[in-house]
Design goal:
It is built from 24 helices and 27 strands. By secondary structure, it is α/β, with parallel strands linked by helices.
Length: 660
């Protein structure tokens, strides 16, 4: 079991470095600045020689964490330094030692004992590419600046929470970034958390602290003031208004917000979020003009949405309310609305009820991320329109598309950026498509493009324009490519009834899309190019038994399924990130983490929790079945398996994919 030694580098703020001893290996986290070295080396020498340290982990590459490295080398350190990708170029240029990024080692470091350190990105907490380090067997997290607090008079839970929230508000950009990282950390079975400053969190405190930290709303108070003295306060209205924009962006698409400020005195630009790029108006005039522009374009609805956060700034920092909130015009409009509401209350209740029914129906049929109608709606549309008459020499076509590197974008920047990437793709698709083209959201992370009346040349022209528009666009976090499948109605069996042909159309589009993704990035497959590549799907087999692996490959080859082998769950995760898997079959007994733990981790990830999961093991028992049921495992089979039983289940899974 790993032993943790906390080395306090500064007593006043309880700034710490941590030494992990795992059998004969030593790992040092966040060694601090050059002026911390006397204290650090004094404590290290009580435990081991600096030459025995195998790794130094730098969780954030700020000044107070890297200036000690040169002296540590001179003192005898000759191991590997692990950093984030941002710190790599500077350190590589400045120092001559073995250097690896967390991406180079696939976000994990396996020690000789089998203990694994997982590196979990915590972007902008407080620097762009910070990360935390998780000891997977000991269930201990080294959280960096996250959960730091400084010195406390008394370490009670209430004081600890107040200290952490105060520290976060002082140096973090906003609570949204903290909430994003907390979502990743909640799935870990944490027993202890060691932050860079302040006090460790014990198991009994962690749930309460997570909840309190997540609920504490702030937007970096240091950005509120430009300058402040005893007599005068100068507010940073631009930073405060950027918070307002972020609040609006959480509820409306950026294009709608940009439209509000189009041709106004405020110029917006899309960075990680919408921000004010420039304005000739400054100070309190800018504060008032911003809300007047919103009122002119959107009326009181948007003002009402922003009112709670405006009042919070007013109460916390004594910033004057924008004039529009106190003007007689607003008061009169509210009075008129109140009078009108009293006169027509019964009628409005009925309208409101009808509106709610419509909104509920719309929510059921629309994707909340892209606002496109979903696959269920598309099926109904196709049933009603597939057999309508066509112009001579024209056909109907369905294209299925997915972003090749969407999983990578989600991992690198977080799911919010992944959702934004999908919305930006829809925006470009809408600009590119013609009048007889309709977009629908797939059940997965892709989009259907349905052309009600088209030709082969028109489809080719559309795809060429789409790829050019994507290539020319600067709205994506990084360049994207698309996997595309094309199916035309003349490929369908004319003897089938309409519902079955719609099933056939969708199924062929999706299976062809999977084959396009398997061939590499940017692939387009249609009837002519989709040759000699047909497979029904891909099975991920997680099992160490080579005899069983070979048996499964032979079984599934009979029904045109590919089998990809993973010997442990870490290999399995790497495969899941790069392949679209139709079903996972796992042994219970694996050398690192067992099959149940694997399923539990999949359940915590929205990208993987719905993948059908089968347990196949020599150790099927009542306890195993009960545990499988609790984890939503689809099937538990006892080895040696009956091939026909397994094949039947896989076929039923495939049959349910698009069944009406």
């Amino acid at each position: 079991m790993a032993k943790i030694t906390q080395i306090i580098l500064e007593d006043k703020v309880k700034r710490s470095s941590y030494l992990i001893k795992d059998n004969e290996e030593f790992i040092l986290l966040d060694p601090g600045a050059k002026h911390h070295l006397p204290k650090l080396l004094e404590e290290l020498n009580k435990i081991t020689d600096i030459k025995n340290i195998s790794y130094i982990i730098i969780q954030s590459n700020d000044y107070l964490n890297i200036t000690s490295l040169e002296t540590l080398m001179e003192s005898g350190f000759s191991g590997v330094v692990i950093v984030n990708e941002t710190g790599f170029p500077h350190l590589r240029q400045s120092f001559d030692f073995s250097l690896k990024t967390i991406a180079d080692i696939d976000y994990k470091l396996e020690l000789k004992s089998g203990e694994i350190l997982e590196f979990i990105t915590t972007p902008f907490l407080p620097f762009p590419e910070c990360f935390s380090t998780y000891l997977t067997k000991a269930n201990i997290l080294f959280s960096g600046h996250l959960f730091s607090s400084g010195s406390l008079e008394e370490k009670t839970q209430e004081n600890l929470i107040n200290g952490i929230n105060g520290f976060h508000e002082a140096i973090m950009p906003s609570v949204e970034f903290i909430r994003h990282s907390l979502q990743k950390l909640k799935s870990l079975k944490l027993k202890q958390i060691y932050p860079r400053l302040g006090y460790s969190l014990e198991k009994e405190d962690i749930t309460t602290v997570f909840s309190a930290v997540s609920k504490y709303d702030f937007y970096n108070t240091k950005q509120v003031f430009l300058k402040k003295n005893q007599k005068n306060v100068s507010f940073n209205y631009e930073a405060i208004l950027n918070h307002m924009l972020k609040w609006l962006e959480s509820r409306y698409h950026p294009t709608e917000i940009l439209e509000v400020f189009k041709d106004s005195e405020i110029q917006l630009e899309q960075f990680a979020n919408l921000e004010i790029a420039s304005s000739q108006i400054k100070g309190y005039r800018l504060w008032n003009y911003f809300f007047e522009t919103i009122f002119t374009k959107k009326g009181t609805n948007w003002l009402a949405l922003l009112e709670p956060i405006v009042k919070k700034y007013n109460s916390l920092y004594n910033i004057n309310l924008p004039a529009i909130y106190t003007s007689k015009f607003i008061q009169q409009e509210k009075a008129i609305q109140s009078l009108s509401a009293n006169n027509t209350l019964l009628g409005e209740r009925l309208i409101d009820l009808q509106k709610k029914v419509t909104e509920t129906t719309d929510k059921l049929l629309r994707c909340p991320i892209t606002n496109l109608y979903n696959q269920r709606f598309m099926i109904e549309h196709l049933i009603n329109n597939l057999d309508k008459p066509l112009v001579v020499d024209e056909t109907r076509g369905l294209m299925a598309i997915q972003i090749d590197n969407l999983v990578k974008i989600n991992k690198k920047y977080g799911p919010t950026k992944g959702d934004e990437t999908l919305r930006n793709l829809v925006y470009i698709l809408n600009k590119t498509k013609g009048d007889l083209t309709i977009l629908f959201k797939q059940n997965g992370p892709g989009i259907f493009i349905y052309k009600q009346s088209t030709t082969d040349d028109e489809i080719k022209t559309f795809l060429a324009r789409l790829n050019k528009n994507i290539s020319d666009s600067d709205v994506f976090a990084e360049p994207i490519t698309l996997a595309v499948s094309i199916v035309k109605i003349d490929e369908l069996n004319p003897e089938y009834p309409t519902k079955e042909r719609v099933n056939q159309l969708i199924e062929l589009a999706l299976t062809r899309l999977e084959r396009a993704k398997q061939k590499g990035n940017g692939q387009v497959l249609d009837k002519e190019t989709d040759v000699n590549t047909y497979i029904e799907g891909i099975i991920l087999l997680v099992d160490e038994d080579e005899t069983y692996q070979n048996l499964m490959i032979k079984i599934f080859k009979r029904i045109n399924y590919d089998v990809i082998i993973a010997k442990d769950i870490y290999e399995a995760y790497e495969i899941l990130e790069n392949k679209k898997i139709d079903c996972i079959i796992s042994e219970i007994n694996l050398s690192k983490l067992d099959g149940f733990r694997f399923k539990q981790k999949l359940n915590d990830d929205i990208s993987y929790k719905s993948i059908p999961f089968i347990i196949a093991s020599h150790h099927k028992s009542l306890d195993a079945v009960i545990r499988a049921n609790l984890l939503d495992v689809d099937l538990v089979l006892k080895k040696p398996i009956i091939p026909e039983e397994l094949i039947g289940h896989i076929k039923r899974i495939k049959d349910k994919r698009v069944r009406l």
